[in-house]
Design brief:
43% strand, four-stranded mixed β-sheet, mainly beta, elongated
């Protein structure tokens, strides 16, 4: 239920031995639905289930080439929210010299900081809506292999702007 004021009123009727009592209503009572943040980052535009289509995987990438990963950030809260997108480059297993950038869903426009807090974000999303975020990696030339058959991974976090304690991660794997 969206955040805001919900008016609650009971409606009732009953039968007695001599006939039905007409329908009656209780007094109306206001109930406040509190705003709550929620986010799921995954690889699916079909569902906001955490872990769906994760990790986001590409099978190959050429030396010095570009690899793109389509990630999806879902607003699973009950109010409009934006989600900061943070790349954990320190824990990345990609080869040294790999360059990355975050792009909007069209795959060409850089992701922007729409709320002015110093971190790029999805922009405002209504409850139940999603934004596609593209991670573009440029692999260094002269590096080959598959990291001892483990592949290469990089994790991103989508963090609520309205409640920074609410976050979810998605992993991209080559």
């Amino acid at each position: 239920i969206p955040a805001g004021r919900l008016l609650n009123r009971a409606e009732f009727e009953y039968d007695i031995a001599v006939g039905a009592v007409p329908r009656a209503y209780s007094n109306t009572v206001g109930f406040r639905v509190l705003a709550s943040a929620g986010v799921v980052a995954n690889g699916s535009t079909a569902t906001a289930i955490d872990g769906m289509s994760e990790p986001v995987t590409r099978l190959t990438g050429a030396q010095g080439g570009t690899v793109r990963f389509d990630n999806v950030v879902w607003n699973t809260g009950n109010r409009r929210d934006s989600f900061d997108v943070l790349v954990d480059s320190a824990a990345s297993t990609f080869p040294s010299g790999t360059l990355w950038r975050l792009l909007q869903g069209n795959g060409t426009t850089p992701l922007l900081d729409t709320d002015g807090n110093g971190t790029v974000d999805t922009g405002p999303l209504e409850p139940g809506a999603f934004a596609k975020v593209v991670l573009e990696l440029t692999l260094p030339p002269g590096v080959s292999g598959n990291n001892g058959a483990a592949g290469f991974e990089l994790t991103k976090t989508a963090r609520s702007v309205t409640d920074p304690a609410v976050a979810d991660t998605v992993t991209d794997r080559l």
